[in-house]
Design a protein that fits this description.
The strands form two sheets. The protein has an eight-stranded antiparallel beta barrel with strand order 1-2-3-4-5-8-9-10. A two-stranded antiparallel sheet has the order 6-7. It is built from one helix and ten strands; from the N terminus they run αββββββββββ. The longest helix is centred in the N-terminal third of the chain and has 17 residues, at 2-18. The chain is 8% helix and 63% strand.
Length: 205
């Protein structure tokens, strides 16, 4: 976590030093899953949404009052829920969106923002549990699980992720509220890409 914080500070410092820019801090809520591209008959492949969080830094390079280029760096917690055999998979990424932002003035102090662009992500940590045995106990069956690392091992998930980010937000003075949706274009498992809905708040310095 210390390395991530230092990298984030360095990222913001370098970019802000080479051009006139606005630095923002962001934090929010993730609702993520993996989506099947092919129809799988096995019930354990029916994935569900998982709640998590994200936080990071963005920098706006304003080309005009109506357009800006917005790179960023986030720690984004994703994953999915499966079933009793594999209840939840945690996939935590260091993520960099590279967004084109179109701004429309609403009032003197507020703007409507539409963003779209690619994102790059690299899996840095995460764990999941897998059912290894079922034993009878007190007239019922209890499952025993083994914990595995998500991005290491024979059955690990792919670390690199790439996709498209699109979203809508509102800025008022130094404050920001917005929602975005990420559609992964990389198969991280079984021909299945990441999907993630995010709701974020932010403050611009």
């Amino acid at each position: 976590m210390k390395k991530l914080l230092l990298f984030t500070i360095l990222f913001a410092t370098v970019l802000s030093s080479i051009a006139q820019s606005q630095i923002s801090i962001r934090a929010g809520y993730n609702l993520s899953k993996v989506a099947k591209v092919i129809n799988l008959q096995d019930d354990c492949e029916k994935f569900d949404w998982k709640s998590a969080a994200n936080f990071g830094v963005t920098i706006d390079f304003e080309k005009s009052e109506k357009f800006a280029f917005r790179p960023g760096i986030y720690y984004s917690m994703k994953g999915f829920k499966a079933d009793e055999v594999m209840p939840k998979v945690n996939l935590n990424y260091l993520e960099m969106p590279l967004l084109a932002v179109f701004k429309i003035g609403l009032t003197e102090n507020s703007k409507l923002e539409f963003q779209i662009g690619p994102y790059l992500a690299y899996g840095i940590c995460g764990k999941y549990k897998y059912e290894t045995s079922v034993t009878p106990k007190n007239n019922r069956f209890e499952s025993e699980y083994t914990t595995y690392k998500s991005f290491s091992g024979e059955d690990s998930y792919k670390r690199f992720d790439l996709g498209i980010n699109s979203g809508l937000g509102v800025s008022y003075k130094n404050y920001y509220l917005g929602a975005s949706y990420e559609l992964g274009t990389t198969y991280i498992m079984n021909k299945s890409p990441n999907h993630c809905l995010s709701i974020n708040v932010g403050y611009t310095f």
